[in-house]
Automatic annotation (TrEMBL):
Residues 26-47, 353-372 are annotated as: Disordered. Residues 185-540 form the Peptidase S8/S53 domain. Residues 28-38 have a biased composition (Polar residues). This is Subtilase family protein. GO terms for biological process: proteolysis. Residues 1-27 form the signal peptide. The lineage of its organism: Bacteria, Bacillati, Actinomycetota, Actinomycetes, Kineosporiales. PANTHER family: CEREVISIN-RELATED, PEPTIDASE S8. One of its GO terms (molecular function) is serine-type endopeptidase activity. The active site is at D193 (charge relay system), H242 (charge relay system), S494 (charge relay system). Keywords: Hydrolase, Protease, Serine protease, Signal. InterPro entries: Peptidase_S8/S53_dom, Peptidase_S8/S53_dom_sf, Peptidase_S8_Asp-AS, Peptidase_S8_His-AS, Peptidase_S8_Ser-AS, Peptidase_S8_subtilisin-like, Peptidase_S8_subtilisin-rel. Gene3D superfamilies: Peptidase S8/S53 domain (3.40.50.200). Belongs to the peptidase S8 family.
Length: 590
């Protein structure tokens, strides 16, 4: 699961190196974007400096863009861009008291801003990779070239279908849901992620470059050198690999190559809001949700969460007033964008998170804020924060109107890393569990196999100079004309969410009606899509006993034992929500 980072305050020097403009096609929305630095946590009011700072300012609902801009100007800010539909602006100011004035201004909810803290450490996203890719030490225990050849299959299956235990678990197979409803090109799924490799041979047939957008500017400080002069990657590029894996799980086509996704016939668009490094800014994410709403997208997949706070609280006593306001703005802004998207026919689907935490009783968070960091990458301002479930949210997983998805392994158990909770869990879906084996040792086959960009494989060193995979976590297939198509095993709630998104796309394909606002496409009320998704999920009871024990044999720590306790009923419980999504039932039983 990736991170969404609050747009940070930026020094004038950094601004000069990363300035770029991206125009959204959303009608009536100015979403001009400026390069942003996510490494920050304190507001200008707290820092006491007069250096130029950057802020996300949220309007009070119903305030006109003109009135909000006037209030921002009066407080000492300059509007760089604004989004009238959702009601926020990206603002620059050198006034040390701008945040305080904006917070008190009529018509403004408040301003969230941070200072630039320079270059991020190289291992800044290693904690996320440690779950999704496993640690380097754990992968090394299975080091060596992949010797797997395309296994035997029926004439109707894709070459690697036998490795897709996840699709079998939800009935998304050639003999299952594909026969009844493979998905329609009149239905669009938006992938709000790090980008999508639209040139991958097992994605390209379903990739809609014309309606894809990149809302971010690469930042050399965190992303490495820009690949293009503008630092704005083309819409069919993914230099991280996360978004490509998600897109492939949702909608890789049936084309005689590699794998097929849950909904192999749907239209896929990349709504890139994540940096190459895997971090997400607030403003591009809001822009992506708004664009999805205005462009006729039916389902969006959101496999990310918000930094610098693991939980965004309304008024945690451990936080400063400026930090409290920052968190309130994050929660309110994301909720505003989600509400707008749903009002336009979009169903948002989110991963629940990989902290193995009961979200209904999170306890003490000692990791936030996770920025700024010292030279070794350790947070310098993290502190113990007692998390109140009633006033603190994991965003966007706990926002209203979002379908939150937990992860399961090959045996059907809740994955060891997956978050859970009776209030927060809507459904569950296969997300992989490398330790879900008879002896608790690592197996890549317990993870999720999906498309992998060749450029990322080269950069990560998982293929050799001849293009051969050098790890069993990566597979290579060949197209009929000899082109390489790579696939990688990953795990996480980020991998579970797209299974649910794919089923939601099948539901719109099966039961949707012509969309008058977007001729030639289908639409379905998100309330109905969600009701069918949850109502046709396979009821899965809590384990017996309810306290489940996980035993993992780690390459670095030996045997690791952990527990998680499930509460609830057969119909709705903390591990599985209303059940494990079922593609076949969704298109045949409603």
């Amino acid at each position: 699961m990736r991170k969404i980072v609050l747009s940070a305050a930026m020094s004038t020097a950094l601004l000069a190196t990363t300035l770029a403009v991206t125009q959204s096609a959303s009608a009536g929305t100015d979403t001009t974007q400026v390069g942003q630095n996510p490494r920050s946590t304190r507001s200008a009011a707290t820092s006491g400096t007069s250096a130029t700072q950057r802020f996300v300012v949220l309007y009070v609902a119903g305030t006109s863009d003109a009135n909000a801009r006037a209030a921002i100007t009066a407080a000492g800010g300059t509007v760089l861009s604004s989004n009238a539909e959702v009601g926020y602006a990206l603002v620059e100011s050198s006034a040390a008291d701008f945040a305080a004035k904006a917070d008190a201004a009529v018509g403004l909810v408040g301003a969230a801003a941070d200072r630039s803290i320079g270059k991020a450490p190289a291992d800044a996203v290693s904690s996320a990779d440690a779950i999704e890719k496993l640690t380097a030490a754990e992968r090394a225990t299975l080091a060596g070239r992949s010797t797997l050849k395309s296994p035997a299959r029926s004439s109707r299956e894709e070459p690697l279908a036998s490795l897709q235990w996840d699709m079998k678990a939800i009935g998304a197979t050639a003999s299952g849901s594909y026969k009844t409803e493979p998905g329609s090109k009149k239905v669009t799924v938006g992938i709000i992620d790090t980008g999508v490799d639209g040139t991958h041979p097992d994605i390209a047939p379903n990739f809609d470059a014309k309606n894809s957008r990149n809302f971010v500017t690469d930042l050399p400080d965190i992303d490495g050198p820009c690949e293009v002069a503008s630092c704005v990657d083309p819409v069919d590029v993914d230099d991280d690999g996360h978004g490509t894996h998600v897109a492939s799980t949702i909608g890789s086509p049936v084309n005689g190559l590699g794998i097929a996704g849950v909904a192999p016939g749907v239209n896929l668009v990349s709504l890139r809001a994540g940096q190459d490094s895997g971090y997400f800014f607030l403003q591009p994410t809001l822009d992506a949700l708004t664009f999805a709403a205005d462009s006729g997208v039916d389902v969006v997949n959101m496999s990310f969460y918000v930094d610098p706070w693991l939980y965004n609280c309304q008024a945690n006593p451990a936080d400063s007033p400026a930090e409290q306001q920052q968190q309130r703005v994050i929660v309110a802004a994301v909720q505003r964008a989600i509400d707008y998207a749903r009002s336009k026919g979009v169903l948002p689907i989110s991963a629940s998170g990989n902290e193995a935490t009961d979200l209904g009783a999170p306890g003490v968070d000692s990791t936030s804020p996770d920025y700024p960091v010292d030279a070794d990458g350790n947070p310098t301002e993290a502190r113990d924060r007692t998390i109140d479930n009633a006033t603190c949210l994991n965003v966007p997983a706990e926002n209203d109107g979002v379908v939150t998805v937990n992860s399961t392994g090959p045996s059907g158990r809740k994955a060891y890393y997956s978050n859970y909770g009776t209030e927060q869990s809507d459904v569950s879906a296969p997300g992989g569990d490398a330790y879900d084996t008879p002896n608790g040792r690592t197996s890549p086959k317990g993870m999720i196999l999906a498309a992998y960009p060749a450029n990322v494989a080269k950069a990560e060193g998982t293929i050799d100079e001849k293009g051969e995979p050098n790890t069993p976590f990566v597979l290579r297939e060949k197209t009929k004309d000899g082109k390489d198509a790579y696939y990688q095993y990953l795990q996480g709630t980020s991998m579970a969410a797209p299974h649910a998104a794919g089923v939601a796309a099948l539901i719109v394909s099966r039961y949707g009606k012509p969309d008058k606002a977007h001729p030639g496409t289908l639409t379905l009320d998100p309330k109905l899509t969600q009701a069918i998704l949850l109502g046709t999920a396979t009821d899965t009871p809590c384990p017996v006993p309810a306290e489940f024990t996980y035993r993992r044999v780690s390459a670095t720590a030996g045997e690791v034992v952990s527990t998680a306790t499930c509460a609830g009923t057969l119909d709705d419980n903390g591990f599985y929500g209303e059940g494990i999504v079922n593609a076949l039932s969704a298109v045949t039983e409603f």
